[in-house]
């Protein structure tokens, strides 16, 4: 079998993990720029100065409230991997040429909001930042590669954090709408596919990542994400008005959830875990708050502040498609179990599947389940915008990188994707594996946790030449795209 002729094969990245150029082109700082490197065992930290002037840092996971009056900032003595990333800012032509050689039909990237609005609340954008993305989109179009743009991907301008408290402040809605109006107007005809927020459901766990919010409790999470819901809905409507060709979607972190046993309690836990994921897409696809979430807010004592007209805004701003990340499935139980997780989600070990070196359970069949669940629930086109295996890659004596483990992972997932489309009838737009070129890990801040088809010479301390080298998976994925998914053979 093969995928539809117009299927969008490509790869995915985020500005804060690969772009670099943090102090160039008039760019301001964003949330990622004050988060340090971490490791497999040591949490990344956020750095800040207290109102008394004391320089401090605090673990990003689990995220606890920052002190009142804290100002997030860059400090001496820490390594901030976002500041250089893999230097796409200067090497975009080289990288895009390699994507074209693989045969990419699309490329997912994010706009660094603070590159266009350095503080986040300016009325007029930074022209030098706009020109950078003009050049990137023109380079992609030169190779007939469709840009797929995430408007906000863990990159809230630091000015909005320190001045307003991030997305907890309603004024961020207007700042975001102004930002998006700039994007839709400037890049009309160059960009058609947009996503408003990356993994918006991470607000329920890591509000600083998701929206520059320095407090963490149910009331704060609920109010901040409501502001993002309203902003997204306004932007969907605005984007269609500026260019009817625009396709504007949401993006959530997703995965199949299983009850560990057939014990009813385990199945209820699985239902509740799935609901936590569906809440965000329920609002953004259907245009209203589901009753189960409103009941949960009642139990938590959450009082959601809605302005007059918000409900109508949500109804009028439903997304065109649903983008999601899928790396792993989750297993839950009412009994004790060995804790394991991945992509900001925790559960217990599933005895029937293997896990990666970082403990993310490898479950290709779960992708088919996820695709069917979302398609049956919403009947909206789906887009797998992240999927992949983070692993340590070894350079052999001959200079090659034999990443058969990555090929095996991707093969397993593409096979299940094919079944979901051709057997189950799921409407799937495209597939963009995560970190198609090696980049900084969002969860750990490492470089050694690599996902790409292209190896980048950079280590966890920021050393290396940044030289790009094709891995074995490069030619394999090229063959997959050429055959439209029909040839998955591993040689």
TrEMBL record:
Keywords attached to this entry: Glycosidase, Hydrolase
Protein biosynthesis in keyword set: no
GO biological process: carbohydrate catabolic process
Classification via Pfam families: Glyco_hydro_1 (PF00232)
Annotated active site: 386 (nucleophile)
One Gene Ontology MF term: beta-glucosidase activity
Entry's Gene Ontology cellular component terms: cytosol
UniProt key word Hydrolase: yes
PROSITE patterns, alphabetized: GLYCOSYL_HYDROL_F1_1, GLYCOSYL_HYDROL_F1_2
Protein name: Family 1 glycosylhydrolase
NCBIfam families: PRK09593.1
Protein family: Belongs to the glycosyl hydrolase 1 family.
């Amino acid at each position: 079998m093969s995928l539809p002729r117009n299927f969008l094969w490509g790869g995915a990245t985020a500005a804060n993990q690969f772009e670099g150029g943090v102090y160039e082109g008039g760019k301001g700082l964003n949330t990622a720029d004050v988060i340090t490197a971490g490791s497999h065992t040591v949490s990344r930290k956020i750095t800040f100065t207290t109102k008394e002037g004391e320089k401090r840092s605090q673990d990003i996971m689990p995220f606890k409230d920052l002190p009142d009056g804290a100002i997030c900032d860059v400090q001496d003595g820490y390594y901030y991997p976002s500041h250089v990333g893999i230097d796409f800012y200067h090497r975009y032509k080289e990288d895009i040429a390699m994507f074209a050689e693989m045969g990419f039909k699309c490329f997912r990237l994010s706009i660094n909001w603070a590159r266009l609005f350095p503080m986040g609340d300016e009325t007029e954008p930074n022209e030098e930042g706009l020109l950078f993305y003009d050049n990137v989109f023109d380079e992609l179009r030169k190779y007939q590669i469709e840009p797929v743009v995430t408007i906000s991907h863990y990159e809230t301008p630091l000015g909005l954090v320190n001045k307003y408290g991030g997305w907890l402040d309603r004024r961020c809605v207007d700042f975001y709408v102004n930002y998006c109006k700039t994007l839709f107007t400037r890049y009309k005809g160059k960009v058609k596919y947009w996503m408003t927020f990356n993994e918006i459901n991470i607000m329920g766990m890591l509000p600083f990542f998701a929206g520059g919010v320095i407090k963490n409790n149910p009331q704060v999470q609920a109010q901040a994400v409501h502001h993002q819901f309203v902003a997204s809905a306004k932007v969907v409507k605005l984007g269609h008005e500026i260019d009817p060709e625009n396709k504007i979607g949401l993006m959530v972190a997703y995965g199949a959830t299983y009850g560990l046993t057939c014990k009813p309690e385990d199945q209820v836990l699985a239902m509740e875990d799935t609901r936590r994921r569906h809440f965000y897409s329920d609002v953004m696809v259907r245009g209203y708050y589901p009753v189960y979430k409103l009941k949960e807010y009642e139990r938590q004592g959450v009082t959601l502040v809605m302005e007059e007209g918000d409900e109508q805004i949500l109804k009028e701003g439903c997304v065109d498609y649903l983008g999601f990340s899928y790396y792993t499935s989750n297993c839950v139980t009412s009994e004790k179990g060995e804790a394991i997780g991945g992509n900001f989600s925790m559960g217990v070990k599933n005895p029937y599947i293997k896990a990666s070196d970082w403990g993310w359970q490898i479950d290709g069949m779960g992708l088919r389940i996820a695709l069917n669940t979302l398609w049956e629930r919403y009947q909206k086109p789906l887009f797998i915008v992240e999927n992949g295996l983070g692993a340590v890659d070894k350079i052999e004596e001959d200079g090659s990188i034999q990443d058969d483990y990555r090929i095996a992972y991707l093969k397993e997932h593409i096979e299940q994707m094919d079944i979901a489309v051709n057997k189950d009838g799921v409407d799937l737009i495209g597939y963009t594996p995560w970190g198609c070129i090696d980049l900084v890990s969002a969860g750990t801040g490492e470089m050694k946790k690599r996902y790409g088809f292209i190896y980048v010479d950079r280590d966890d301390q920021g050393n290396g030449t940044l030289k790009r080298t094709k891995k074995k998976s490069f030619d394999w994925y090229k063959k997959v795209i050429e055959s439209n998914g029909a040839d998955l053979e591993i040689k």
